[in-house]
Amino acid sequence: MDQLLNMRPSPKSLYFRSSPGSKLSFQSEDDRDTALSSDFTPKPKPKPLQGMSPTNFSPENDQTCKSSQKQESMKQVKIPKLSRFSTQRIITVNEGDKDEEPEIIDKESQQHQIQSALVIGDQTKAMEEQLKKIEEKIKVNPKLKQIKSKPISMRNFQKVGESKQDKLIDHPFRHLVFNPTISEETFDKHLRITQRGLIYSKRCLKGPSDQFIEKKKISLNRNNPQILNTIFLDLDETLVHASLSKDNSQVKINQINDDGSETEIGINIRPYTQYFLQELSQFYTVYIYTASSQQYASAIVNYLDPKRQYISGILNRTNCMETKNGFFIKDLRIITDLDLNKTLFVDNLVHSFGLQIDNGIPILEWNDNVDDLELKYLLEYLVDASEQSNLREFNVAQMQLDQLLDYIIK
């Protein structure tokens, strides 16, 4: 593949490795010995949507006025400057100007009062409009009331001031990582992995024949047929990470093999995974699409969603297309009655959804970082997308992956 992509191998070049779940993924040699955390998945207490209340603004009487500069001229009126917040008129006039000056002062005072009232009115009106939009949004989609906390997306960083601490806020592809805080090294690695996956998918990957697709065709069940949107989630390095060392894994689960025997698996679970699945299932029919075995995937899904309340089904390695290079491609065309305009796909490897790039969201890969917030902040983007008439067009406009194809990474 390096030859096709005109890339020179180097000691620190990215390569594919095989994880315990038999999933191929990009990894740098510097990352092979990453220490695994023993912390368990955070279970945040969802917070209610924060309301907004108009800022109270009341002008106060100011007894102190700045003295005006004395000017020497015939019949010059001496009027001290009025405080912006003062409602009193302080009039200093010559005896010959008593009939004219009060009228002038009245007009100036009225102008100040009108301007203050307009400012207050504009602020109150703007806040009332925002509250009205929130109320209308809830009326249109009552399920929004069920979300206990709505994460802040990248589009709101500047509003809440978080961009001040983000050195990458002006990067044209900063939106590809939803976490509000990320190191430049991690971001650069993610950008390179994503770009290489795009290059391979667009310039090297060839789709299977129609006959192959027909042979692979499957029909999927939906937990709630009334939910028309569909989302496919990768498993390894997206929701979980299989640990090579069982002693350092967060959770130990048993995998039931074909012959009835059991194999103990050590896994780390990405922070906010259960919360993510629970909230997401209100807006999408959720499926797991993995390049791992059915037994491995079922063992993990049974732990994440034992009652199968959130996950409607599992697609495994047998539902993938394997290339000559050993890559497993997840082609959504094998699913019958699937509307791609109502479908999204989340995977840490772009080539996995390489035949449906427009539907894909390349999530930051995860191994053991207990401070990771990617799923929490990705949730709002997916909720916003679910309200669009065409999810695929919305995703293309937001992700802008085609522009990354020829982007020069410094």
TrEMBL record:
GO terms for molecular function: phosphoprotein phosphatase activity. Signal peptide: none annotated. Residues 224-385 form the FCP1 homology domain. The keyword Transit peptide applies. CDD domains: HAD_FCP1-like. Its main location: mitochondrion. Keywords: Mitochondrion, Protein transport, Transit peptide, Translocation, Transport. It comes from the Eukaryota. The keyword Protein transport applies. Residues 1-77 are annotated as: Disordered. Transmembrane segments: none annotated. Residues 52-71 have a biased composition (Polar residues). It is found in: Mitochondrion inner membrane. GO terms for biological process: protein transport. GO terms for cellular component: TIM23 mitochondrial import inner membrane translocase complex. InterPro entries: FCP1_dom, HAD-like_sf, HAD_sf, TIM50. SMART domains: CPDc (SM00577). It is a single-pass membrane protein. Essential component of the TIM23 complex, a complex that mediates the translocation of transit peptide-containing proteins across the mitochondrial inner membrane. Belongs to the TIM50 family. Component of the TIM23 complex. PANTHER family: DULLARD PROTEIN PHOSPHATASE. This is Mitochondrial import inner membrane translocase subunit TIM50. It comes from Paramecium tetraurelia.
